Amino acid sequence: MLARLQLPPAALFLLLLSLSSPCLAQSGIANVTLLAHLDNYLGYSDCWGYRAPDGREYAILGAWEGTSIIETTDPANAVERAFIPGPFSQWRDMKTYQHYLYVVNESSREMQIIDLSGLPQAATLVGVYPGFTSAPHNIYIDVAAGVLYGIEDFNAASPVRILSLADPLHPEERAILGPGLGTDAHDAFAQDGILYVAEGVNRTMGFFDVSDPAAPRLLRRLNFPNAGYVHSSWVTPDQRYMITAEETAQRTLKLWDVQNLNDIKLVGEYLGGSQLAHNPFILGNFAYISHYQSGLKIVDIADPRAPIEAGSYDTHPQNEQPGFAGAWGTYPYTQHGVVYISDIQAGLFVVKFNGRRSHRVYGVVRDAATNSGINNARLKVVESGTITHTTATGAFATGYGGEAGHFSLEVSAFGYSATSVSFATAAARSDTVTLALAPAPTGAIAGTVRLPTQEPAAGHTVYLRVRSELLPAPIVYSQVTDAQGQYRFDNLTISDGAFAEYDSLWLAPRFPYVSRAWQEVSVTAGATTTRDFQLQAADIVLVNDDPLGDYSEYYRDALAGTGLAIYEWHTASDGSNLPVTVAAQLASRTMIWFTGDAAAAVLSPAEQDSLARFLDRGGRLFLSGQNVAQALFAENSAFLRDYLQIEYLGNTNRFVLNGAANSPIAESTSLLAISGVAGANNQISPDMLRPVAGGNARPAFTYLNATEAGAVTVANAGNASKIVFFGFGFEAIPSNNPRTLTRPQMMQRILAWFDLAVTVAEQSPAAPAEFRLEQNYPNPFNPETTVQFTLPHAAAVSLQIYNLSGQLVATLLSGKLGAGTHRVPWRGRTAEGRPAASGVYVCRLQTEGLTLQRKLTLLR
Asked: CA–CA separation, 292 vs 816, rounded Å?
């Protein structure tokens, strides 16, 4: 039962508000003592407990080889009394009823029934229940009702099987939560006629009336906010509060008010340092959590709206990451007051918690100048590392679960000077405080934007980004230059290391001008920092005409280091009608246009018209795409005939080409591949081409052991235009094959023919670096592929796999990484470790409000 806290009126008022963000415990509170440790088997899963009629206490430990029964009557001298072999399995779950033990695993459809009445001399396998249709993952027994619930994870036909234990040796099926009631289940809890089902991949919790086990009825289905994999739950004896775990990195354990199932409220959240929790249990004023690599976490939930870590024991001290290692299960319901922990690698730990209640602090953080509440102010308990944040009204609830003495609370918020306050620690005490933060000093950043002719540039957008560890995400400010080309950012918080860092000030690209940027701009109190910009016309317009917007990075990589200024145009967002009349302002009148995976209506009439007008004005065009010629041929396009001056002959399955004789971009000994490592590997229908007789088109590359061209060049003396056309995707050329031309080498040859001088560009001010997500390799793949991405600076990232229905399949990575290139493997498995089905998936990289994604194909 949860005790009631007697709070001052101010604290009670604050708690009527939506309280602070989850407590993130970065370092554990002790208050827990190790009494015994046993490690006798290869690996372990869940644990449970049993108190015999003679008063002896036993821990029940799931091992990969079977079930170990360990006497803990004298906790410091725990000893195994029996071992019941079972099918080899890394998953084993067990519960007791009367003097029987029921055990399931994921290697068998059968449930073992073990008689414990012979302990401490022996335990005996006395029966097997064979009625499951798939290997059950979990079981739960409502002891008062004499009902066992068997959970067949990932079995939509019978996710929960309801069995009567009226005859404990012969469980009898009463009903199934099948289609119409549920489609997935991972774990369950039952009490007083209500069954609480954690519905796994459905990301929901189902509440069922099972007062008549033969006629279950759905009462309510709860959707989780920003849900992960809804894994398990536990409910207080009075059925007022429920705690849930989602077994997904960075998803909190949630405390819900469920006294009214028609009005369920999320009231509190908690997450330990590893940021991946497994199984929660409630006993009295505390939640006991097996928290994977954080070990056992004991959280004071006497006030569920302000959960405070009160104790911990780390069974996996070598790491604290969101990985599937460390504490799997825990059991706090012993009569002699000890707690069992099962560790996946290290076996059974028997520990003692001293039961110390936490010291809570309630309050509000206010602006000292305006007296208004400050949203998202950060409060850090120095001694425990616990961090909470205020609500929109400035309200907070936090605390400390450590031993007697003092603890300090550091209070900070972006735009304010930090402060701190100390408290004399006392168990089960509550304090209410009001904390005021003074606004930090401010400064300004201003400057002028000028055209290449030095005239003022009006109407250009300037962006300023500030980072702070006090902000959930960077803030980006914007200003538009006035008629004098001037911009100004006023009232900026002064630069202060990690608390306020203005890492980038940049000018937005605006055709035909490229972006310009200043890095690390400092803001000082009472002063104005000046940063001017001079517009630079692009040397090249890079037109991304791929329907999904993919493959730009393959072109940018090939252009990197050339010193050429690139303007990137996306037809999906910027439109098809490229303003070619402005192309005269380009430094070199050069355009690179690629169509990626476009297969139908590859170049619209408007796009063909834009390209034609660009060439009529003497433009240099590099056009690439595996379906361009085929699509233009199908519509009898004049652009194919009169400008590209080629005929379409069909598709080919050849992926290597030879340089053609007298080609301006290749030698006859040159080899060019369009498949291989570090290429897009997306070519399924390269086009075969033939120059129109009497025209200006010439073969540049022909397919290996064939006469058909795969690429042509066109030089028109009349208007001085030049064309390089690839009947395949340039993005497919590998960048590191020593036997063939690489993408950068091929690009340099094209640019040289376009008479572009390739030099090292002036780097100040530099163009802002970008986040990139590369195409996985190999793709398609089986059984493993590698995802590569690049970060221009340290950032918090999430790398996840989704199916085409938008459902999360696996989280490959979640956390903060440094700048540079990172490679992450995916072995084609779901978050639960099961093989993913054949098909197309989406790899999604999310960071700082940006989402990049790639399609992956898994072939089984």
From this structure: 20
- Structure-token pair, residue 424: 């004399």
Q: What is the pLDDT of residues 177-230, one digit of tens each?
A: 988 888 899 999 999 999 999 999 899 999 999 999 999 999 999 999 989 999
For residue 17, give both structure tokens.
């508000």
DSSP string across 622-648: EEE-TTHHHHHHHTT-HIIIIII-EEE
Question: Considering only CA atoms, which of 781, 784, 814, 810 is closest in space to residue 797?
Answer: 814
Question: Can you tell me the mean pLDDT for 399-414?
Answer: 93
pLDDT at residue number 153: 87
- Separation of alpha carbons 462 and 316, rounded Å: 49
Residue 561 has pLDDT above 90, yes or no: no
Q: What is the pLDDT of residue 7?
A: 32
- Among the listed residues 664, 610, 627, 656, the one whose alpha carbon sits nearest the alpha carbon of residue 547: 627
Average pLDDT, the chain: 90
- Nearest in space to 103 (alpha carbons), one of 133, 80, 125: 125
Question: Per residue in 776-788, pLDDT tens?
Answer: 877 778 777 888 8
Rounded Cα distance, 253 and 517, in Å: 42
User: Which strands, in side-by-side order, build the sheet including 279-283?
Assistant: 279-283, 286-290, 296-300, 308-313
Q: How far apart are the C-alpha atoms of 559 and 538, rounded to whole Å?
A: 13
Question: Which residues are CB-neighbours of 309 under 8 A, at least 6 positions away?
Answer: 23, 25, 28, 29, 270, 272, 297, 298, 299, 300, 358, 384, 386, 401
Q: Which residue matches tokens 């997500």? A: 773
Separation of CA 408 from chain center: 33
Query: Token pair of 119, please?
Result: 């302990």
10's tokens = 């101010």
Please, are residues 358 and 310 in contact by the beta-carbon 8 Å criterion?
Answer: yes
Query: pLDDT, tens digit, for every residue of 800-818?
Result: 998 877 788 998 888 777 7
What are residue 747's DSSP bridge partners?
none
- The torsion angles phi and psi of 190, rounded to 5 degrees, stand at -135, 145
Nearest by Cα to 785 from 857, 737, 713, 716: 857
pLDDT value at 764 more than 70: no
Q: Which residues contact 428 (CB under 8 A, 6 or more apart)?
A: 302, 357, 358, 359
| pTM (two decimals) | 0.68
Cite the beta strand spans of 558-668 per DSSP E.
566-570, 590-594, 620-624, 646-651, 656-659
Structure tokens at 133: 């249709």
The span from the CA of 203 to the CA of 224, in Å, is 6
Alpha-carbon gap, residue 285 to 304, rounded angstroms: 9
Burial class of 290 by CB neighbour count within 10 A (0 to 12, 13 to 18, 19+): buried
Q: Both tokens of residue 631?
A: 């699509």
Residue pair 59/38 in contact by the 8 Å Cβ criterion: no
